[in-house]
Amino acid sequence: MSVPGEWYLILSALLFTIGAIGLMIRRNVLVMFMCVELMLNAVNLSFVTFARMLNDIGGQVVVFFVLVVAAAEVVVGLGIIVAIYRRRSGATADDLHYLRG
Amino acid sequence: MEALDLTWLIPAFPLVGFLTLLVAGRRLGDPWAGWLATAMCGSAFVATVAMFFALVAVDGHDRHHVTTLFTWIPVGGLHVDFAFLADPLSITMALFVTGIGSLIHLYSIGYMHGDRDFPRFFTYLNLFVFSMLTLVLADNFLLSFLGWEGVGACSYFLISFWFTRNSAAVAGKKAFVTNRVGDFGFMVAMFLIFATVGSLDYATVLGEGVERMTETTATAVALLLFVGACGKSAQLPLYVWLPDAMEGPTPVSALIHAATMVTAGVYLLCRVAPILEHADPMAMTIIASVGALTALFAATVACAQDDIKKVLAYSTVSQLGYMVLAVGTGSFVAAIFHMVTHAFFKALMFLGAGSVIHGLHEEQDMKRMGALAKWMPITWSTFMVGWLAISGVPPFAGFWSKDEILAGAFLDNKLLWLVGLATAFLTAYYMSRQVFLVFYGEERWRSPEHAGEHDKEELTHAEKSVGGHADDHGAGQPHESPWVMTVPLVVLAALSVVGGALNLPFAKSVMFLEHWLEPSFGDALHPHEFEGYTQWFLALAATAAAAGGIFLAYSTWYRRRPEELANLEPEPLKKAWYVDAGYSALMGGPGRWIADKTAYVVDKGVIDGAVNGVATLVRGGGDQLRKVQTGYVRNYAVGIAAGVVVLLAYTLVRTI
Amino acid sequence: MSSLLAASIPDVGVFVVSAVIVLAGALGVIFARNAVHSALCLVATLFGVAVLFVAQEAHFLAAVQVMVYAGAIVVLFLFVIMLLGVDREEDPTLEPLRGQRPLAIGFGLLIALLVLVIGGRANWATGQRAARGAADAPGENVELLGRSLFTDFLLPFEVTAVLLVIAVVGAVVLARRPPRAELIAMREEEERFRAESEAELASSRKASQSDEIEAAGAANREGES
């Protein structure tokens, strides 16, 4: 009998929270991106836990897809960041506020 | 097709006349425009006579023929047809409207000769006759109301005919606005009738509709229609427009403000007699009291007027008061009878006055007339006939109709009868005063002050081109009027003599008018029942009142100079008990204050403020909401987090 | 929650250690001043998660996690950090947006709290069991995963492949260095745009919209009376 699934879920919740707080607090764009990765990992963890608790392979399949899409997202996102940083160096997330109402 | 199906011809003739004159009036000019209009009115009269005979041919209780031209308003529950009703009451009205109308059209050809706007006058006259006929021949309230408004509009047009004169324009407006107040009553009454009965046809409403109405509804309808009648028929307190309406040409005063339009209110009340009977008796008492009071009030004012037309105007108000008194005491036939005879002699006297004015070159002040009997014999003699008729001297027409009203009042309420009797006395007095001032005494129009002054009437005459006057203008002799003006006078005088024969009270068999009108009134008709010699006593009292008034006027005014008698004409009477001044103060003072407040506080402040306020609110809201869009991604992230918290909290609350 | 005694000691130990690594790494990511330090802490977290995957019998995923996430994605991050010199430290005490910190921390903690409370009240896992194939069926984890992937989830699989291609193309386009002339034109345009928008923002802040309307309304009333 291994560790009960609920513990994993609590851990996942905590990890997600930390990622969310980090996203809202940090100004450096790359660190914000990394916090997004944290949140995705938390979700992955919870999916795998559910796969075990519900005895369903579908949970792991979802994680597979999330992994792939996260990778693609990082690629494109970093490309955008590179494109932005070419114009203005030292930009933080706060410098891009031209869509204000 | 029955002959009565051609009832629509009656209003069609003046309508054709109106349209033709509208288009080609200017080209026809003086006098052909006038002859066309008169011909149209005359044709309408002929058509009415034909319809009259057709109606006589029908059996008594079936005298109720509806001719539908087309469906006017078919909306949901409201179905109104453009339809004409030929029944005794409407044909009677149509007869004297078209008859007297034709005579006055003829008269106007002479009177308006030389006026620059000759064709326009006849255009309006024909339109008026059409509207009046629509009013009396309609078979439902709404079509009558159309005619009602039409005559109101024509009255406005014709009163302010010489609109370049400020007083005329103002008088026209006054007439229209005062009428409007009455129209409000008519309209609300129509709404009530439709709401309770579901139809606006006379046949339905006055037949089964009355049974369906509660007494309260009937009372409300009766009083509201009475408000409308007050406006149109110049009762207290809405009579103020009628004296001012004398600004219009004299034929207008004769036709509209003596014979026809002002009787529309009385006609309406007679038409809805079943409703009046069904209402609370207090409504009838109110109607009768207002009528009696108006009669007395106007008679007192007429005693102190100097303008020849103003005397006749107040006299009209007074006689209308008699008719309303008759309606209020349940003597509907008497009201119609007096309406007919009054049309004869009042139109006669107005036309006579017009003849005098014309003959004296637009002089209207009686204090500057006198001894015209020998200068204008035809006018004089016909005017005398009218004078005797209105004073109630037997056997002229006015005596019979007035006596019947007084008899009905006596049966209903002795106090009202006394008021009526007093008014009869005053009527004789002021009419005699007028006759003595105008036709007897010294030739005051010869006095030197007059030759140099220019009356306001003379200014108008100067506006007209001077045509048809052989003598020189201004200081000339008075002259008799041309035949187009005197023929109608003679005809009307003849009618004023024999008109009483319509409804002599001696025996049931000679009460032609009562028999004739019975189908129109149905159960509402209560013939008078007198014991013994009461009737003779009443007749005697009325005659005594008339004689007394004439005698009093004779002893004071005949062969006396008016300056000596100034104290007989106190200021309050001259100024009509300051009613007009009162209204001006009321509307100018508090009325104006209310209007100001309503315009600026309610309309601009509250309503506009509300609308603008909504806009400002929205903009303000938008301004505040805009602040959510800071442009910072991190703020948006916080927003999302907040949303997540809300959702989780909701889930938590739901699962508790 | 099932009884603690039912689990064996080594399992609990593995879990606790991994959990500590995961959480420590996460905290490191958000608190490290240097971006490179954040990246390295992220690696730690990813490893911890991989271990937890293994503990839950998801062997394939653990391997993929290490290879793709820790091996490729974080490396990409580091490339960009180094390339662009974004490792300059940002001042952690300065917070330009008002109320951001307290709100962020507050909401974050609330989320955690609410999730735990909801989960605690209800059953944590309430879904249908073995909807897409049993996880503990006989066969290797890879085999089971592959079977499910190529039968039930074939369409998403293909679509994801297309997505990857698009991502590659997009990345190349985005990171392309434009020719010099275009660079100059872009820079000029950007300067112009920035100047205009700054001016506009300043003027709109000075005379706010409601003031203008007030003035117009007053002019109207004066004209009328």
Describe it:
The complex is a heterotrimer of chains A (101), B (656) and C (225). Helix content of chain A is 75%, strand content 0%. The model of chain A has no long low-confidence stretch (mean pLDDT 88). Chain A has 101 residues and is mainly α. Chain A has a single domain (5-100), classed as Helix Hairpins, CATH 1.10.287. In chain A, helix 1 (5-25) runs antiparallel to helix 2 (29-53) and helix 2 packs antiparallel against helix 3. Chain A is built from three helices and no strands. Chain A starts with a helix and ends in a 14-residue tail after the last helix. With 656 residues, chain B is mainly alpha-helical. Chain B is 71% helix and 3% strand. The longest helix of chain B is centred in the N-terminal third of the chain and has 49 residues, at 9-57. Chain B is globular, with a radius of gyration of 30 Å. The termini of chain B are far apart. Mean pLDDT of chain B is 83; it is low at 450-475. Chain C has 225 residues and is mostly helical. Chain C has a domain at 1-89: Four Helix Bundle (Hemerythrin (Met), subunit A) (Up-down Bundle). Chain C starts with 8 loop residues before the first helix and ends with a helix. The model of chain C has no long low-confidence stretch (mean pLDDT 82). The chains are: A mainly alpha (101), B mainly alpha (656), C mainly alpha (225). Chains A and C meet through helix 1, helix 2 and helix 3 of A and helix 1, helix 2, helix 3, helix 4 and helix 5 of C.
Features:
heterotrimer, B: 656 residues, mainly alpha, two-stranded antiparallel sheet, 2 strands, 71% helix, 3% strand, globular, C: 225 residues, Four Helix Bundle (Hemerythrin (Met), subunit A), 75% helix, extended
H/I helix tally of chain B: 25
- Tally the beta strands of chain B: 2
What would you give as the CATH superfamily of the domain at 1-89 in chain C? NADH-ubiquinone/plastoquinone oxidoreductase chain 6, subunit NuoJ
> Which architecture of the domain at 1-89 in chain C per CATH?
Up-down Bundle
Helix content of chain C: over 70%
Tally the beta strands of chain C.
0
Stated plainly, the CATH topology of the domain at 1-89 in chain C is called Four Helix Bundle (Hemerythrin (Met), subunit A)
Summarize the largest interface: chains and residue counts: A-C, 78 and 99 residues
The strands making up the biggest β-sheet of chain B line up spatially as 1-2
